[in-house]
Amino acid sequence: MYKSRSKAQWVGFTVSALALAIASERLSAAEASTIGATEHVEVVGQAVSLDKALKQQRSSDNIESVVHADGVAQLPDANVAEAVQRLPGISIERDQGEGRFVSVRGLGPDLNSVTINGTLVPSPESARRAVALDVLPSELVQSLSVIKTLTPDMDANSLGGTVDVESLSAFDHKGLFYTGSTEAGYNKNSHQTSPKVSGAISDRFSLGDGVDNFGVAAALSWNKRDFRSDNVETGGDWDFSDGARLNSFEQRVYEISRERTGGGLNFDYKPDDDTSLYLRTLYSRFEDNETRNSTSFEFSDPQAEGEVGKTKTKRKLKQREETQEIQSYVFGGERMMGLWTLSGQAGYSESSEDNPGGIAGATFKGDSSIGNGGFYDTEKPRPIIGAGFYDPANFSLDKVDWQEQHTKDTEKNIRLDLARDYDVQGYASQVKFGGKVSRRNKDNDLNAWTYKDFSDLGFSDEQLNLEQFNKGNLHYNLGRFGPGISGGAIKDLIGGLNRDDFYNEQDSRANDFTMREDINAAYLMNTVDIDDWRFIAGMRYEGTEFEAKGTGVRNGVFEDQDTRRDYHHWLPGLHARYQLAKNTQVRAAWTNAVVRPTFGQLAPGFVIEDDKAEFGNPNLKPLESSNFDLGIEHFMGQAGTVSAFLFYKDIKNFVYNNDLAGSGEWVDFTEAHSYANGDSAKLYGLELAYSQKFDWLPAPWNGVILGANSTFSRSSASIKGVDAATGATLKRDIDLPNQSNTVGNLMLGWEDDKLSLRLSANYKSDYLYELAGVNDKAHDTHVDAQTFVDFSARYSLTKNLHIKFDAQNLTDQPYFVYSGNSRYNNQYEEYGPTYSVGLTFTHF
């Protein structure tokens, strides 16, 4: 299929890299006297960035991986998500080919958390907890950390890891610093050019009797990207009872314009050596304008490839504008008082998503003159259809769905910590305790209108014909598409109608909800250094109060829903670090975490119509995980490290989608789709990582930088259900959703004092995306393996001015989802490569 690298190849890459690390270190020692005479150039670029990240990783009490901005305050990738994916154990979910959501050690994005300067960032999307990281302006980011083991003084709300974003501080530079850049990008699929401008500035000032004790840092970023993608999908509508027969499929053309605006203003004040205060602010706006034209083919009877039969055809349009905003404000400080250290922080974050009104679906039905149809190619279905299908005169308007939606998610928190240093029989120790209060509220308000029966409203057949709405034939890389639909013409048509007559109360009220999640936490921990050992032991308590309000619809009758729950967790933890040698250390950790289900899974609303039901489950238990980590790290000169880590997670109450038809109160139902808690799941694996700059080699080889990492993991879980036909209890063993067995990165770079080059590849093996049902393995959806290859180049025209070139997705890697077996399409999408060139001026 579409696998560009086998798992065996990635294993070989990593093993070879580890062997090279050992050999290179021996060579470095053996030839130190000779190589020492070679002129060395200190480069502000890839190696410096890697070295800073490794120093932070080395000194951390947690097991973590770090990405550090380089000397010009730029991340090494296009956005935050794509920079993080280079780290061991990290993969990303992409939207329209762009990296957005982060998975850690095979656990989905909703099971991890994102913090900015230590405060939680809520999600703007109504159903999710995951936060898209492509909205953060890279110029404001100083470092990114993926913390994989949590100490008791940290929030326990991540199973895989916490992505912590540290923003730029004026104290990161000695004096005045500023940078500005312009960039133009080009997408091969859309043939569109996309602009970007950004900049950052910081400086330090003297207040009172202090010298350079007050710092201000600011950053702004704006870019607009126009692109498109081509898609064909069945949605898993296969009938496997007699071979493989298809019921329906769609072809889709996406035309998208995304505009991002981000900025931040940070203040730091250090009135004396014992006191520091800070204020961190962030604003991000993400505007997404999407037009989706589609053609659909629905067969009267399931058809095998190449067969032709009676077919219903449609042409559809979806056109909407969504705006996501994230605001974050964090005020905190630290005061040292002899052996005591007092620190605290107050944070407010707000995320929102607003759809002021858009076409959720405009459907044109094809008439009988189009004739029979079929398909060929089970992986990328193409239609077998007559020429009449491409004539707009053969389609007429049937229905228009219009929606408006607003989602708001706020997080308010206050944290206070107190630590005291002391000695235990001559060993340095510290006791630390504190608490945190957080209040989170999530609201979703959806309003829907359904316009139909246009003939009864006095519209003529000519007025409803697609020729009146024809946008012209659309380009489609996967075959012939035919006429597109004009959104403006649709809006003109329904704009003259009284919208109150078409209000869809059921869809509107069933999707509205208000959820409240209050968490009170406290902890106690102790750190002690005994010779070459460091131990951290402690306990964290988290008490949660949860409330969900919404509306259910039972055969047209509305019912108010209000669910309230309290639950408590005691979460012990133990960390140990042993200095095996000067540059080698061993780490071990036992930690416990608790993660609440997504808001979509907890949704209180339901829709019941006759013998079919669909509903959320506000009574779901939170996911609990007991985690064990053991590993070794060895550091080698500049930007050099080799490491290996084992991890094991015992997860209780994992959540999966389930069909309850045939059981309990749903015994007479044919469908009853909801969510359930599984008993337990296991996740275990091995992380290997290596990076090194070969500065001990003679020129030009002393500019080579090599990095490789691979994560090999396995998972096991079991789900239960009921056979709707027999009532028998069923059980099935599965992999955890979103868990890839193999994730790998390979990076080859070279740099000197003028030029910096980097070629990188990211591999992610196939994984289970969504369960179809306990007794329907054939319809489970899987995402196929992907390998993305990117290239970047930077050249310094002067000390302060450099030009850059980036090429992403050089292999034109598609996104392919299949049903049960990789031969059978669920979704296939192509994006094309993207190229950009930019100019950056920096003063520091």
Give the distance, in angstroms, between the N- and C-terminal Cα atoms. Answer: 49 Å
Total domain modules: 1
**CATH-defined superfamily:** TonB-dependent receptor, beta-barrel domain
Mean model confidence by pLDDT: 89
SS-based class = mainly beta
Radius of gyration equals: 28 Å
CATH class: Mainly Beta
Shape: globular
What proportion of the residues is helical, as a percent range? under 10%
What is the CATH T-level topology? Maltoporin, Chain A
CATH architecture field: Beta Barrel
How many helices? 8
Number of extended strands: 44
Low-confidence stretches: 1-43
Major β-sheet profile: 22 strands, antiparallel, barrel
Strand percentage lies at over 45%
Structure characterization notes:
This protein is mainly beta and 844 residues long. The chain contains 8 helices and 44 strands. The strands form 5 sheets. It has a 22-stranded antiparallel beta barrel. The chain has a 5-stranded mixed beta sheet with strand order 1-6-7-4-5. A 3-stranded antiparallel beta sheet has the order 14-17-18, with no helix packed on it. The radius of gyration is 28 Å and the shape is globular. Mean pLDDT is 89; it is low at 1-43.
Secondary structure topology:
Elements: H1 7-30, H2 32-35, H3 46-59, E1 64-68, H4 80-84, E2 90-95, E3 98-104, E4 113-116, E5 119-120, E6 141-147, E7 162-167, E8 177-187, E9 192-205, E10 214-233, E11 238-239, E12 245-272, E13 275-303, E14 308-309, E15 311-337, E16 340-366, E17 373-376, E18 382-384, E19 395-424, E20 427-452, H5 461-464, E21 470-474, E22 482-485, H6 487-495, H7 505-510, E23 513-530, E24 533-554, E25 557-581, E26 584-595, H8 599-602, E27 606-609, E28 612-615, E29 623-635, E30 641-652, E31 655-659, E32 671-677, E33 680-693, E34 704-722, E35 729-734, E36 742-751, E37 755-764, E38 767-770, E39 781-783, E40 786-796, E41 801-808, E42 815-819, E43 825-830, E44 834-843
Parallel strand pairs: 4-7, 24-27, 28-32
Antiparallel strand pairs: 1-6, 2-3, 4-5, 6-7, 8-9, 8-44, 9-10, 10-12, 10-43, 11-12, 12-13, 13-15, 14-17, 15-16, 16-19, 17-18, 19-20, 20-23, 21-22, 23-24, 24-25, 25-26, 26-29, 27-28, 29-30, 30-33, 31-32, 33-34, 34-35, 34-36, 36-37, 37-40, 38-39, 39-42, 40-41, 41-44, 42-43
